[in-house]
Amino acid sequence: MPDKEQIIDLYFMDARCKLLEIAAYQDRVDRHEGEEDYRHHAFLKALEAMQNPSEGNTRVQAVLHSLSDHSQTPIPKATIQGAFGAAHSS
Questions:
Q1: What are the pLDDT digits (tens) for 11-48?
Q2: How many CB atoms within 10 Å of residue 40?
Q3: Are residues 5 and 30 in the same domain?
């Protein structure tokens, strides 16, 4: 079983790179005109969920839960074949 230092040795640079990608994404959104849509709002909510996971949840669970569609009623007809990666909140 690896210890914390070994985990950091293995994963720090990859996590650092992903964190920089997230910062760059945020900077690009901030620099450009227009309205942010539900996906960006969901992304910001997921970042907050990662920082403050609810009791008993891991950070991954908190992020996935934040981005999931929790509706109970099926839509009458799909308009696309695919996913957007975040639930559209109405």
A1: 999 999 999 999 999 999 999 999 988 999 999 999 99
A2: 14
A3: yes
**CA dist., res. 66 & res. 50, Å (int):** 9
Q: Which amino acid is at 2?
A: P
For the purposes of burial, counting CB atoms within 10 Å of the CB of 69, is it exposed (0-12), middle (13-18) or buried (19 or more)?
exposed
Q: 46 and 61, same structural domain? A: yes
Q: Which residue has the tokens 């620099």?
A: 31
Is 44:20 a contact under the CB 8 Å cutoff? Answer: no
- Is the entire prediction scored with pTM above 0.70? yes
Domain that includes residue 57, residue range: 36-66
Q: Which long-range contacts (CB under 8 A, 24 or more apart) does 4-13 make?
A: none
CA distance 7 to 79: 43
**In terms of domains, do 24 and 41 share one?**
no
Q: Which of 31, 41, 83 is nearest to 66 (CA)?
A: 41
